[in-house]
Design goal:
The strands form 7 sheets. Strands 1, 2, 3, 26, 27, 28, 29, 30, 31, 32 and 33 form an 11-stranded mixed β-sheet that branches. The chain has a 4-stranded antiparallel β-sheet with strand order 4-5-6-7, with no helix packed on it. Strand 12 and strand 13 form a beta hairpin. About 0% of the residues lie in helices and about 55% in strands. It has no helices and 33 strands. With about 375 residues, the chain is an all-beta fold.
């Protein structure tokens, strides 16, 4: 019996652009490669040429974080020490806010409002209101090192902050006063996320663990089994039943996202492996996109991947060549994602299921 095997080497992907000025914005046709994974395990490589709109940059340096404020606006921050509110549908800057003295590290939004919080390497947290002045509405000072975690309670009355100083602080949003303080040795906070409709806060750490905190007294309620690598980020599903965390790594070691049960068992449910560098962000995708539940991840390997939440199968990979490490990922609406990058600002991505599941880069700013 004769066996034949065809091996296709992955060649460096080429990106070519043609630019022309159109009504005050830069428009181009972008050619890029994507990979769709078939049920039989083989990979289809597709080269797409799509209309692409490049708007004026929101930032002049690396974008560290992006978050969706509502169905039209996003808020971002980065090394230029500026918080920018941006209409991602029109490509217009709504407001530029200055107040921090160093790089913006985290942003937490009060959804369907004009209010949000920003954290910085200057150890400060600021509350902003787009309907108000360009000055912070409230300031929160209490950490001795860079603030690396922000989470707003479901009723918006409390704010939890975390830092590399191993400390979590719980604040009264109205008064700006610290209500609770908790510290765990070696607990260098990387991200915080409040569980919807619950008093619990999920936290990832450089000590490779994920902790669940009870905001009533700010006590550790549960510690998930430790991973092999630093946990960089976490997100909780809308129903509060599951959460995902992601890992640092290099060369495919680590570099995974993990799905956990937040209910009775609190066990690990599934892992998503396929990135080759640190996974910096992970999100649950809206159920309106497909019949199956899905998650998306972004990585320092310049790739955004969509996964089948239940099976762990990678459904689609988009390579954002030239973007450098991808630093943050946010759901903008039912079909759109916002992806912050080290070198190419913020990328607007769109999920298209008209010809099978695809993820397309449609704009940048």
């Amino acid at each position: 019996m004769l066996f034949r095997c065809h091996l296709k080497r992955a060649l460096p992907q080429k990106v070519s652009c043609r630019f022309c000025a159109v009504m005050g914005k830069l428009q181009s046709k972008l050619k890029y490669s994507t990979y769709k994974y078939r049920p039989d395990g083989f990979r289809d490589e597709r080269t797409q040429t799509k209309a692409f709109q490049e708007y004026s940059p929101a930032h002049v340096d690396t974008v560290s974080v992006v978050a969706a404020l509502n169905s039209d606006l996003c808020v971002s921050g980065g090394k230029d020490k500026t918080v920018v509110a941006y209409n991602w549908r029109t490509g217009n800057v709504v407001k530029r806010l200055k107040g921090h003295e160093r790089e913006i590290t985290k942003i937490a939004c009060i959804h369907k409002s004009g209010q949000f919080f920003s954290a910085s390497r200057d150890k400060m947290v600021m509350m902003w209101d787009l309907q108000g002045s360009s000055q912070p509405r409230q300031q929160f000072s209490g950490h001795s090192m860079v603030v690396t975690g922000l989470a707003v309670s479901p009723d918006t009355s409390q704010l939890c902050t975390g830092s590399r100083d191993n400390t979590l602080l719980l604040w009264d949003v109205g008064t700006g006063q610290c209500a609770e303080r908790a510290s765990v040795s070696r607990n260098l906070v990387t991200h915080l996320c409040w569980v919807p409709r619950e008093p619990y806060i999920l936290q990832t750490s450089e000590d490779k663990t994920i902790r669940l905190w009870d905001s009533r007294g700010l006590q550790v309620a549960h510690v998930f089994p430790a991973k092999q690598h630093i946990q960089t980020y976490c997100e909780v599903s809308e129903d509060g039943h599951k959460c995902i965390s992601c890992s640092s790594g290099f060369g495919g070691e680590g570099c995974e996202a993990t799905l956990w049960d937040l209910r009775q068992t609190r066990n690990r449910i599934c892992e998503y492996k396929g990135h080759f560098q640190t996974v910096a962000s992970c999100v649950f995708l809206p159920r309106a996109l497909a019949l199956m539940p899905m998650i998306a991840t972004s990585s320092h390997d310049c790739k955004v991947k969509i996964w089948n939440q239940d099976s762990g199968a990678c459904l689609f990979t988009l390579s954002l060549d030239g973007s450098g490490p991808l630093t943050s990922l946010a759901v903008a609406d039912t079909v759109s994602l916002l992806c912050a990058s080290f070198s190419r600002g913020i990328r607007l991505l769109r999920v298209d299921d008209s010809r099978g599941l695809e993820l397309q880069e449609v704009a940048g700013f």
